[in-house]
# Entry
Amino acid sequence: MATLPRQLHLNAFLRNIGQHEAAWRLPETRIAGITDIDHYIDLARTAERGKLDAIFFADHPVLKGKTEFRPFDALDPFTLVTALSGATSQIGLVSTASTTYNDPYSLARRFATLDHVSKGRAGWNIVTTANADAAANFGYPNHPDPDHRYRRADEFLQVTQKLWDSWEDDAIVGDKDAPRFVDPDKIHRIDHVGEHFSVAGPLEVPRSPQGRPVLFQAGSSEPGKDFATKYAEAIFTAQPTLEEGRDFYTDVKARIRRHGRNPDEVHILPGLSAIIGGTEAEAHALQRQLEDLTVPDYGLEQLSSIVGFPVTHDDLDRRLDFTDRQDTGTHFIKSRYALVKRMVHNEKLTVRELLLRLSGGRGHRVFAGTPEQVADTIEEWFTTGAADGFNLIPPALPSSLSAFVDHVVPELQRRGLFRTEYTGSTLRGHLGLNRPASRFTTAASAPAC
Amino acid sequence: MATLPRQLHLNAFLRNIGQHEAAWRLPETRIAGITDIDHYIDLARTAERGKLDAIFFADHPVLKGKTEFRPFDALDPFTLVTALSGATSQIGLVSTASTTYNDPYSLARRFATLDHVSKGRAGWNIVTTANADAAANFGYPNHPDPDHRYRRADEFLQVTQKLWDSWEDDAIVGDKDAPRFVDPDKIHRIDHVGEHFSVAGPLEVPRSPQGRPVLFQAGSSEPGKDFATKYAEAIFTAQPTLEEGRDFYTDVKARIRRHGRNPDEVHILPGLSAIIGGTEAEAHALQRQLEDLTVPDYGLEQLSSIVGFPVTHDDLDRRLDFTDRQDTGTHFIKSRYALVKRMVHNEKLTVRELLLRLSGGRGHRVFAGTPEQVADTIEEWFTTGAADGFNLIPPALPSSLSAFVDHVVPELQRRGLFRTEYTGSTLRGHLGLNRPASRFTTAASAPAC
# Structure
């Protein structure tokens, strides 16, 4: 039997009615989509029609910034992705959830349940929550600093993994005659006691189809990369150029190896916001249309929060000057700060130019072109050591997702880079990942593979 | 236009594969149903076919007791009910959730999202969590006492209601030309600071179809009744006899009035576990079959935890003696303790007899009979001041639910006591409840009804 060539992994990051901050102003965009389940069902089914690995939603446990000027993620992502489980049957369902503003028992219980109700399609994008304003919704005087957040996240992962392992696969006996419903020797307390958590366990959810949900992470800072390479099975990242993408890929794969893990079992998925046109001119016209609809007010606020000092209308035609600025830590995503600084330095961008670059992808790579050109850049990154696939971030929804599925996916399939049918029905199956064994299952009792 | 006679409200309480502790041992019961979404989809659609008001699931954030001898609620109820939203279109979706082991911001966000994705069918059964073992899954050295739990619950309700009100109905403007996505004057911080919670708000979820989810509660203790009559829009209760049901009904309706609320807008729904047969003999044979399949081990453990002292196999043929027992508060549900004490006293039950009574309904009323006899008892309670409807607790699933929907519902419809079609598509609509206005909406800006 011929071995399949290495296959791309494609994940659709669905941001309400579009990632581009001006997408809502396009004539065809339906404002009500922001809270309309039918809008999200349409997106999920389009992504499944395109045989994508998964759809995924961000998590913001706080109403962010200047909502006057742009939409926002208005629904709880876990509840949304759960509601979509019944409208789809094969595509992976990934929700972001915070280790800072959840407790591990409840979160483990919810994800194990999602894995059951979706029949093995659950994924968790682990975040520590970057937005400092979230603290005020949870009774904390201050947002914990990154080191504290990552220490808590590490212990959070230990606890949730133990809880997911707390039922062995064959714990339910269901012997009506004995009678014996479960074998209590195959259900384990975890009795975790640590710096942040004390959790007795076991979970009350029997072991789920995938054993554990697939773990995603997007850390690009030092502690973030360390955490991601220790736990994640797929890593999201914002890489604006091929060269930076390759550097990140090489660095992260080496770190994975240093953690004693197989780098082939951790997929690196850079963000890609593709503006697709039938011709190059059409794609660029759509990009210009989006730029023309962008107002600076929202972007200035976002940029100010990234760099940690106020950037105003008066600065629009200047270049940001970082020389007297300390890396003070007031900005909330270190990797995003470094990225912006690098963009200004390398590309000599004015604030106005920088805002246009950020408006489309919020730091993620924006590429405008024909389906063939989009496939070309995907293939180049994929075959030259910069990516195992992509986190697709459609600038406008549903139009940009449909364009990708209808025109780019067939081109990738023609090139033999992407599946033409799902070969399994679990997210682990799509990603080529093994189902983990429970730590409590002894070799003697483990079922044969 | 003729006024409809007062209508029953029927809610289906779905406990995994059956409320009766021996239901899993019936030959037809499918063990795998416990974690199988298709089992729950089947139940939800059966309940919707019967035009019931809602389905509802319990919440146990801990693996309870002797699972060797009986099934348990194995899935997170909120996630389960959310997954069922897409498989149904009209029936209400009620999840239990604890005010002791949740934070109000996250919970408000989830329920508002469920209300959006279900298009107005969300209900929250508020509990403070009675099982003391839950504390060990959340890092608490001890389970908080009832007074503390109810004080926290009260503040929890204040916070969540403010959060659900934080968006006025017309806050989303979506003016593409202005551009103006929302009107920030119609989105309100709540800035709640209290004994248990500090929450800034606003929620990031725009106001949902029902304004707020419908609130259910099952407090039967003194603080429980006080809480329920202050907040709940439907009250679950365990009442073994018509006389006790009437006393409870009269007491609770008076308390509702004392809180300045309209007693007609709070429905009292006693539990009813109906064992249905084509003839009386068939019904009693099914009841005997269930009794014969009941083993005392599980029931003895449950009973011990209710009464607060050990009850063993040696006690099976004695009557429990409460004379030297203090109401020590070690037992975890005060109202259940009082109920058991009353049953032993009034009906002179041995422990064995008591266990059989508890095995079917865990304190809820069990009634075996023909569809006509079940309809008779429902009609009697409904028309003589003991109930506004019932919380149906099918002893075996799916069989007892199907029997009720196929045989009892048509009988109730023939008698003009129950709807033959849904007249609306929201849970508030089914229950005849008004949609609450946001506290932040001024009279001038309120939309006309």
Observations:
- The domain at 9-274+364-438 of chain A is CATH 3.20.20.30 (TIM Barrel).
- Chain A touches chain B through 75 residues (CB under 8 Å).
- DSSP finds 13 helices and 13 strands in chain A.
